[in-house]
Design a protein that fits this description.
- This protein is mostly helical.
- It has six helices and no strands.
- It folds into two domains: 4-80, Muramoyl-pentapeptide Carboxypeptidase, domain 1; 103-173, no CATH class.
- It has helices spanning 11-25, 40-52, 63-80, 103-119, 133-145, 156-173.
């Protein structure tokens, strides 16, 4: 999809793009090609939108219709994009060691549990937020699989590999619909 700034000064193309995104999430709408021409297909798409939203069905995009389309477009666009990634902020050289508690450890335990469920290649820690022996052992096994030093501690390199493997594993296990 083209960046939004590509459509500045192109209201018809912007309208068509919004209608297209809305139609991709809801089959009760028709898809239009954003060609910048307010032709019969665009009028039909606007009419269907107006009918579905209880607006006067004219096929003309007045301010009320435009605002309703924008309001429906924004959540539809979110549905089409990838979920926002999570980036933790660890201080330079920060290491979470065995016995320490951290909100990050909950995330690590959840990812290790998912990897264990999908691949069975690491142990399944319990969700405690503490880097306990079971979690440390599972993390060390994971580190070994990634050719990292098997410390059982959480550092930035381990986090990077864990996020990558988790992302790959869950996308393979849950292909897009």
């Amino acid at each position: 999809m083209r960046p939004e700034e590509s459509f500045i000064g192109q209201p018809i193309r912007s309208l068509q793009t919004m209608l297209q995104v809305i139609a991709q999430n809801d089959s009760s709408y028709i898809r239009v090609i954003p060609d910048g021409i307010y032709g019969p297909e665009t009028m039909q798409a606007v009419s269907i939108f107006q009918r579905n939203h209880g607006l006067p069905v004219t096929g003309v995009t007045d301010l009320t219709t435009w605002e309703a389309i924008v309001a429906r477009y924004e959540p539809a666009l979110v549905e089409q994009s990838q979920a926002q990634g999570l980036h933790i902020i660890m201080n330079p050289g920060q290491v979470i060691r065995k016995g320490e508690c951290s909100a990050y450890v909950y995330l690590v335990q959840s990812m290790l549990k998912a990897l264990a469920d999908i691949f069975g290649s690491v142990g399944q820690p319990t969700l405690s937020g503490t880097l306990d022996t079971i979690t440390s052992d599972a993390l060390a096994s994971f580190q070994g699989l990634c050719a990292l030093p098997m410390t059982g501690n959480l550092d930035k390199h381990t986090w990077k590999h864990l996020v990558l493997q988790y992302s790959l594993a869950t996308s393979l296990n849950n292909p897009p619909g």
